[in-house]
Every structure is written in C-alpha cells, then in structure tokens.
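Let's practice the habit of predicting before peeking. Look at the sequence and jot down your guess about where helices and strands might fall. Then scroll down.
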Amino acid sequence: MVSCAGAALLLSLPVAIAAWLLAPVQADAFGLSPRVRGDAVDVLRLAVPAALAAQLAGLCEGALVGLSRLASAAVVRLTTALVLAGGTVLAVEAGTGLRGVTVALLGSRLVAALSAAAFVRHACGGLLGDGLAGRAELRRVFSTALAKQSSRLGTIVGQQYERLLAGTLLGAAVAASLGAASMLAGGLAGLLIQATLPLSPHLATAAAAGERELGDAYARAAGRFAVVAASCFGALAAIAEPAVEAWLAPT
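Done guessing? Here is the structure:
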C-alpha cells in the first residue's frame, strides 16, 4: 500500500504543480477585480495540497472498505465533516473569507488522510506494506483504477462545467449564481454514494465465487440502488425551485 500511495502521489505531482503555477491565469480568466484577485489565487493554490491529501485519504478509505472496516471508514468521514464544519464556522466568524474557508478544507482533508492511515495501520497490525510493489502489481492497480478515476473525472466535469464556462465568459458573479442547483444535486449524490459502501465487501466475496455470481450480485444491487436513487432525485426535482430560492435567499 505504501508503494501504491507513493506512485499515486508521483503521478499527481505534474498536475498539482501545473495547477499551482496556473492559479493566477485561472483567476484572470474569471475577470476578477484586483481587490479579490489575490484571495482567489491563494484559494486556488491552497486547493492543490487539499486535493493531494484527499487522494491519500481516499486510498486509505478504500483499504478500510476492502478490509470490511466500514465502521472505521464511517468514523473517518464523520470526523472529516465535523472538522470541516467547525473550521468553516470559525473562518466565517473570524472574517477570513474564502481563504480561511479553504484552510479549513485543507485541515479537514489532512485529518481524513492521517486518521484513515492510522485505522489502516491498526487493521493491518502495524504494517502498511512489505516493500515496494513490482511493475506487474502496479500495472494491475492502475488498470483497475483507470475506469473509476475516469468515471469520477466525468462526474466532476458534469457537475462543474456550466460554472466554469459561465465564469470564463460572463464573470465570477454569474458563475456563483449557477452553483446552488448543482451543489444540491451533488450533495444528494454524495449521500447516496455512502449507501454503496457496504456493497464492496459483498461484491468482492461474490467475485471470489465466480463471474456469474458476481454478475448476479451486481445486477441485484444495481437494481435496488437505482430505485432508491431515482426516488431521491425525483423528490429533489419536485422541490428544486423552492430549495434553490431558499439557499440563495432574496437580496
């Protein structure tokens, strides 16, 4: 696991460095005023280590799910949410603006990575790995993760592209007004994803029994989840207009 974490960070470094260096360019693309441009650049750069910490946390949480330590994974996520909520409130009360809120985000991601790594270490009896992984093992890990990461990237693009286009073409103020609806939908999707965590160990057990058993188990789980997801998003669609109005609040 240590070697996989190191490989993940190594592959992420070029993207992280590019994002850090291009932060001023992205801030200028949004047409921000000089008064807030400095804050925007700081926020974009603070998001880089937050993303790296979140990547490590996700790797450790995946190990916890694979080890059937779902309670530990739940504790990590709950603790992360509490730290983020508390840090956000403190940042707002202190008047530190978006820079302070982003620092709170970074702190919560670091807590997630450290706590998840501690749980994995405990679950593995103090060992996170037995040396460097070979090329074949790393190739297998990356080929398995490619589909998942591609799906996650598509989800991010699907949720954020309209704000990116609006911010680039019309300015940051317009982009902010478009964010409430996608945030509500994304929040609901995030809650539903938590319901799928217990499925991973079950599907792993079914996979060990054979491809047919795995296919049957996946079909049953996907069918039941589709009913729940459709019901939840249908309810959200029914109350979308008043929910967005309540979130934005009249000004």
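How did you do? The mean pLDDT is 77.
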